[in-house]
Amino acid sequence: MAKENQKFVELENKEWLESLEDVFRSQGPERVRDLLSRLHEQARKYGIQIRQTGTTPYVNTIPADQQPPYPGRREIERRIKNVIRWNAMAMVVRANREESGIGGHISTYASAATLFEVGFNHFFRAPNAEQEGDIVCFQSHASPGIYARAFLEGRLSGFDLENFRRKLKPERGLPSYPHPRLMPNFWQFPTVSMGLSPIMAIYQARFNRYLEDRALKEPSDQKIWVFLGDGEMDEPESLGAISLAGRDKLDNFIFVINCNLQRLGGPVRGNGKIIQELETVFAGAGWNVIKVIWGSDWDPLLEKDKDGLLAKRMEEVPDGQFQKYAVCRGEYIRKDFFGKDPRLLEMVKNYSDEQLERMRRGGHDPVKVYAAYKAAMEHKGSPTVILAQTIKGYGLGEAGEGRNVTHQQKKLNEQELLEFRNRFGIPVPDGEAQEAPFYKPMDD
Ligand SMILES: Cc1ncc(C[n+]2csc(CCOP(=O)(O)OP(=O)(O)O)c2C)c(N)n1
Ligand SMILES: [Mg+2]
To answer: 200: which residues sit within 8 A by CB, 6+ positions away?
Structure first.
């Protein structure tokens, strides 16, 4: 029945929502689920079809008030990550100065750095006397970041980094993609071409379970981590075995999909939303889905968003437009994103344009990423997929941050190198930055 009176509708909405809140506070989430499914069933009896797309709102799955405290020393982790960012970029830039068009990718690792570093610092376990160690399949085009980390750890030398992608030289350089045959003590699995690592890893997880069930292998809490690109999910192999993983309840398994919303030469879903689309597909296959969309900067705004206006706006804006925000000034974001409704504009009236420009996406916020990984580690009964929103070429500024050309960016000019150095606080002097030297802090 249509309600003429807007005030009455608002009051009715308020009462229903308050009742639900009351049930949640007094009886918990299970009771909320039960009530909602009864309401759903009742509506179906009236012939009302509610098509369930399997998506949840376009916000983080883990609410801010349920986040665990971050256990690491944020400042030191940030400094290490920044040095790795610099060296990863420098490898590709230097290789391309010697031989133009040599390949290698800067922008993929630039978007994945936090996703990897939180894993390295807090989750991935190496094999030792007590444990067999985790299996980690790295997004292959992000290899410069893995090499750059090994350089800081002292496992690779500056000479190794210098020879990136020049593996046919007599001195034997580093292969651009994970290559266990050339580097048996370094890479566990070959993870290109795109689509191979997700399907191989699912069968590996299933085989490990099989060995345990047949008592051929000691049961263990080993995890298989697979880092993937959002464009990569369009390869048929990427999704080809996910229903098997769901059916076999492979909870020894975690996919982390780096949703920078871009692929090789453009957006993954310019006029759609890749995170929502993947959520539907994975939830339908029985996976536990954790979305990490917004960084902590957004928490105070979402906290104020009592009537869901902001969440609605986040959901209606397509990925292509979010990519535009990544390259635009704060003034445009205020007008185009918040300007849709005066109540949204009011929410950010105390925010400067620069603040709006700097509001981080979830995959660049270690606190959000840590919360998701911890929840994935603790989850039982199904595989987990983490959908993390990032910006491709993060930190490259004018040289490619969030731009369509960023995937192929292999050269930075003097000014761009200086900006990169300043943004990440790398202690390389002005006169030397244009050489893009590798930087390693003193051992102490
Ligand atoms: C099967 C296959 N097709 C094409 C390529 C070439 N290729 C390398 S990276 C890339 C785009 C990757 O996009 P995405 O998966 O979103 O990763 P991102 O770099 O954005 O993190 C393509 C098409 C490939 N490696 N494998
Ligand atoms: Mg991508």
So the answer is: 137, 189
Substitution candidate for ligand 1 out of 179, 268, 407 with most atoms within 8 A of CB: 407
What are the mean pLDDT values of the chain's consecutive 10-residue runs (444 residues total)?
A: 78 94 95 93 88 86 96 95 97 86 85 98 94 95 97 94 74 86 92 95 97 94 97 98 98 97 94 97 97 98 94 97 96 98 97 97 98 98 98 92 86 92 95 95 85
Kindly state whether residue 123 falls inside one of the protein's structural domains.
yes
Q: How many domains does the chain have?
A: 2
> Same structural domain for residues 200 and 284?
yes
The whole domain housing 227 covers 65-295+360-433
Nearest CA to ligand 1 atom 13: 263
| Pocket mutation for ligand 1, best pick of 232, 277, 390 (most atoms within 8 Å of C-beta) | 232
How many Cα atoms sit within 13 Å of 374 on the Cβ side?
Answer: 15
Q: Are residues 31 and 126 in the same domain?
A: no
Residue 348 CA to residue 395 CA, distance in Å, equals: 24
Q: How far is the C-alpha of 66 from the C-alpha of 23, rounded, in Å? A: 18
CATH code at position 185: 3.40.50.970
- Position 65, amino acid: D
